[in-house]
Amino acid sequence: MIAGARARRIRLVAVGAVALLIAAVILSLLVGARPIAPSVVLDALLSPDPELADHTVVRDQRIPRTLIGLLAGAALAVAGTLMQGITRNPLADPGLLGINAGASVAVLVAITFFSISAPTGFVWFAFAGAAVAAVVVAFVGTRGPDGDNPAKLALTGAAVTAGLTAVTTLILTTSIVALDVFRYWQVGGLTSRGLDTVAVVAIPLLVGGIIAVASARGLDLIALGADTAAGLGQNVARTRALGILATVLLCGGATSIAGPIVFIGLLVPHALRAIVGDDYRRLLLIGAPLGGAVLLIADIVGRVIALPGEVQAGVVVAFVGAPVLIALVLRRKQVAL
Fold it and tell me: Transmembrane ranges (predicted)?
């Protein structure tokens, strides 16, 4: 009876996450500094007229930022779940692999040495920087006799992040031009990106998502301990390698199109774990739509709280996510006691 009630609760959460995502997508097309009626949005989707300003806003601005928010939020939530499983730490996040720091340095290189100032030009640089940083952390953090220790991976990630952050600070303090352009990307947001940026990362995100779901059973076994997982026939090293690869593809792609947005990869899986348990397949499949919904809602809130201007989605997520995460951590501690 308890198992049946738990199954119903999990189904309810899954349906709620999908419903929330659908509502967020609809609101993202309707709400902004320029409110647009649902009938006009529908016309813009089905029979666009380039002469109508509202149709242009929907097609050229709101559709791209909605897709970017959906994809980036889902990717960050899944990547965060993977990192928590790989490290067996419920407070781990994708930044543990130096992904944000690597992307930041690569964007600065694009600005400073290649004179790229458009966000669409940053995509490949950010993706490449995130991937290189993660590969370096994974390679160094898994070498040696204690290479299967998650703590070593975390310490390596912290060291690489610190070094890359120092490089970022050095460049920013010596180049006013780089600072002016970089600050808009650094806060994290969904504006000034087009569908061409979505096309660039669509395949990496899809591949990363498939690998993530395929790694779910291995993560469930790793949660029991590396020795126990190996005793049950699980190749722990391969599972971690696949998880890191999926994290690179997901978080690298999300960071390249939306900037280094924090807290989603940490908050979503941590909150879900308290509701649906530690089954990683459920955490991944429910976390994806929930992560997309959270980022889209943050973007919608940012559009309306400072009219006629906007607050970037990354700022809204950080502002709301910090106290919510603190509350979750305190609640978890009280339950544990």
Answer: 63-83, 95-116, 122-141, 153-177, 197-214, 243-271, 283-305, 311-330
